[in-house]
Write the structure tokens for this entry.
Amino acid sequence: MEPAITVTHLSKQYKKGAGGAYLALRDVLAAAFQKREKKESSRFWALNDVSFSIQKGERIGIIGRNGAGKSTLLKIISRITPPTKGKVILEGRVASLLEVGTGFHPELTGRENIYLNGAILGLKKTEIQARLDEIISFSGVEAFIDTPLKHYSSGMQMRLAFSVAAHLDADILMIDEVLAVGDMEFQKKCIGKMEEISTGEGKTILFVSHNMNYITAFCNKAILLDRGEKKIEGDAATVVNAYLSSLQQKKEDVQDDNGNRIVRLLGVETIRRNGQQTSGFTVLEEVGIRMRYQVLEDGYTLWLGHNIHNMNGVNVFDTHSVNTELYSKPHGKGTYSATVWIPSHLLNTGSYFISTAIFNHLQQVIHVYEKETVLFNVTEDFSHELTARGMSPGDFPGVVRPLLHWQIEPQNHA
């Protein structure tokens, strides 16, 4: 059996700062006299010698940090952009959902855009009409289906675009991170639909996501990209674990670029109440964030802060040292340790990044800003009575899941 997708030595080079702006003749002439070394240094490889093959009916997750080349790969496979080197062989029709609004015309209604996308895939009008009601129903935008798309929200556009891509007669479906635009309920609905058309109809799916729970639950294989290169390919859980382990590698303690002459960040780690350093917590545990920093000069008021965001890039919350004495009092020279605790039963299951800053907003000074210093994971506690009664991962939609106090009282009725 021929593979559904064959990628051979695929590479894509871009020029830094290149855009579609108009260039005057003087700009072209000036560029022609630049040194070759400068030209070469302004280019970078978004993809570099990537090869793999995907069998029909497989569900493949493409993972990696921002800038790893995931979206570039899908755009080349979708034939939106050509490769610099290498080739892609496809067996069957391709439907892709790469960016909200891609393939849609804002002046056309939702209904008209369904016909437009079907025509692009090469379907006859009668074939599109046969699927029209199902597409509209799944999208949940029935009330606006005859409204021009320019009046849709980004979430409504994504709903319609996914419904079109999933229901029209394509053999290969490629989904980028756009599902993050939709609400949690619709995301789960999309995952269920992709599993249905993959298992039941034998369609091949490429799925790019920062949500590792979706990757391990939905995909049977995964490919890890890093700086344009393929690092690992294999079982989804194995590849995800390797990716998370690489993110958890600690930075070297003292670097020239993690501070200034006033203060330096020495380290950040997540801990349990007993002081044990760990990157794995259950929803029942508090998550401690401990940072160490060195003050090199007296007399500066330093504010400490952490930003927590999930794998979808959603900012869950920020926390600052506003309730400490040193928030309004200058630090003295020396080495300090500062720990803040995230309450139990607050974060939902998933993976979270911590970014750290030492700053003073009133003085408009940022002394240290380290992005994604630490990654930690929150999982269910399967020994707990709630999960023993059937509450499993995914039963709690949303970013947080606080355990709130409920009071239920019987009321006497006359």
